[in-house]
Amino acid sequence: MRKLLLVAIGLCAACAAAEYIVRDAVLLLAAAAAVAAAILLIFKFQHGVFAALLLFSFAAGSIWWFCYGLIFYSPAAALDCKTETVTMTVVEYPTEYEFSAGVFVKLDGSGANAKMRLWLAESYDLKPGDKITAEVLFALPEKSPDFDFLTFSRAKGQFLTGEVVGEPEITRGDSVPVSLWTEKLRNFISNRLDLLFSGEVLGVAKALTIGVRNEMSAPFNLALSLSGLAHIISISGLHITLAANAVLIFSKKKKRAAGLAIALMVLFVLVSGAAPSAIRACVMQTFLLAGMFLNRESDPLTSLSAALIFLLLLNPFAIADVGLQLSFLATLGIVLYSRKMNENLISRIEKSGKVTRFFTSSISLTVVASLFAAPLVAFYFGWISLVSVFANLLVVWVVQFALIFSFAAVAVGFVPVVGTAVVFLARISIEYIIFGVTSLAKLPFSAIDTHSVYNAAWLICAYALLALWKFGPKGAKNGKLSFILAGLALVAALGFGEIDRRLDSAQIDVLNIGQGQAVAVMSGDSSALIDCGGNVWNGAGVVAAEHFLRAGIRQIDTLTLTHYHADHANGLSDLLAILSVRTAFLPDIDDPAAAEIAALLVANGVDINYVAENTDVPLGRGTLTLYRPVRKSGQNEQGLCVLVCSGEFEMLVTGDLNTTSEKILVEREAFPDSEIFIAGHHGSRHSNSDTLLEAITPENVLISVGKNNYGHPAPDTLERFETTGSAVYRTDLGGKITVRVR
Predict the structure, then answer these.
(1) What angle is formed at CA 600 by the lines to CA 596 and CA 603, rounded to 5 degrees?
(2) CATH annotation of 83-176
(3) Which residues pair with 576 in a beta bridge?
(4) How far is it, in rounded angstroms, from Cα 533 to Cα 530?
(5) Which of 633, 577, 620, 617 is nearest to 600 (CA)?
(6) CA-to-CA distance for 484 and 491, rounded, in angstroms?
(7) What pTM does this model have?
(8) Which residue ranges make up each domain of the chain?
(9) pLDDT value of position 263
(10) In this structure, which CATH number among 3.60.15.10, 3.50.50.60, 2.60.40.2890, 3.90.370.10 belongs to the domain 504-741?
(11) DSSP helix/strand/coil, 430
(12) Which helix (DSSP H) or strand (DSSP E) does residue 296 occupy?
């Protein structure tokens, strides 16, 4: 029995229980009970040592979780919503945004000394080692309806965010401290890459070399998920192994080379941001190389256990890191079953050369890793990629060349001839990756939505068949039959999902895109999107595209913009990078934003219709009625209004019209009573007048709103809705709002 494995299981169980199940007080009671049970096992049972070790490990993990929280997290949590004047040390180079800059710092002389994200008005040319003294408004990372930033940040050891109030006082360090030299090297690589590449190629190059993923476009990130290739740009086993082999392959003295390889791996992990998946891979590879010194063969399960223990000792909150969970599950699958599957495949082939073995090995690694990680991927992301195996065979082999050539380009990219050749090789390698990822993601059914009850049922069925084939009685172990049944079940799940969707007369979704608006409408085999803008972290266009993709829709029939303001239209570029749009209906106004959006739509092959008169647009079993602009003053007042009708159901969208324009609209048009009203201007007090509400008497008001400084939705507006007797639903409180019309 591997003792280190038992310790890892106990430690992991304690951290998982603390994160997902019990509170600290209960956890400490459980730790005490575990110690008592362990002592009893040792003295009462002859073979209870292993169970006792497991229980002791659980107790130790529970105590460590409690102590870590008390020492590191509690002081940070105590600063939540407080404003204090503090001194901080800059630990990374700042990142500049359109209206602000963000930098990671550590608080000086405080118990809350974990890394913290600090927001400033500008970057101030900060560098690691500089000191900032400022009045700071502290806050814990937020929990939004669609993403838990608090858990995400805690898992990475980042417990606080802060916003500088007023002007900061900056004390320049003489030089970057030795402890932060890896950050200086990281910044050097980033700057060199900025000079050598651009666009999506630059984003991928930075993700591969230094672990910076935020410069890749949101549509490409989505394409990585749909194609099952998100792992290729996460620093993990593939990249760490390449770093080790870069030394081993050119050295005859293996022991000395092993030491250099370990040093290079550690440097690479630090420069790439020290992600948990990278640390896991580094620890495992270190165990493997250490075997060269000791003339012993490394045990993969022991190495994996050591990596998990090391990570949880560094930060027990890392148990909630999704990347860590996926990395460990995939690696566990590879350790347990990859070799067996590869040998099984080779045994079925009469002649197996190097090329054949490469393909069988790649298939084995991909299938096993995918099978172990898929349930977690489905749970966290709601997708299962059906092209993952094929995608890995086509793309993964190029990643090693892209990584090697990118680092080589940093080193010699500015050397005449040689540098040009290396940069060219890096660029075409990365362009191949981008082409492969985006092409595979666009295939029909490249990925399926596991939020669908039918697809979720299929996933459970598929794993039940797999378990029956692997662990069932001999009579049930029929691999071909299990595979066929799983395929038939998938076809049935997709079919039932489509039938269920078409049974609805219409489905309306007010998407959660932060402070903005995007309303998706599906009816029969038709689809429409009303507005597409917001300030959600991954972009309104990606959120809208993902929504339609989950319904199996890759072309939107009708796009309508009520007006051209960013919070209603800034997601169009990302949307059109992922999906196609057949027809767009726009207000006809003379405005630079209107011209820019029209050019974007034309470039993407969208047919544009400017609405000068009231227009009825067929949509499945219903109709969109587009009302011409009310006035000719200001974008909001020159916008379109939309009435969605399906049978006896009506929904009105008025964009950002103010109360004066609403009055004119009601006087000019005859509106039916509406089941749904999309609150005007995100619930502004300057919209949603009594005149309009009395005219349409909405049963339900849906407010598309996010965190903002405008006071949306206004208290008096909410009071008007209450007076009207309307039920109110808000995206900032409940996330996406779905209405199904039968």
Answers:
(1) 135
(2) 2.40.50
(3) none
(4) 10
(5) 577
(6) 11
(7) 0.88
(8) 3-77, 83-176, 453-502, 504-741
(9) 85
(10) 3.60.15.10
(11) helix
(12) none
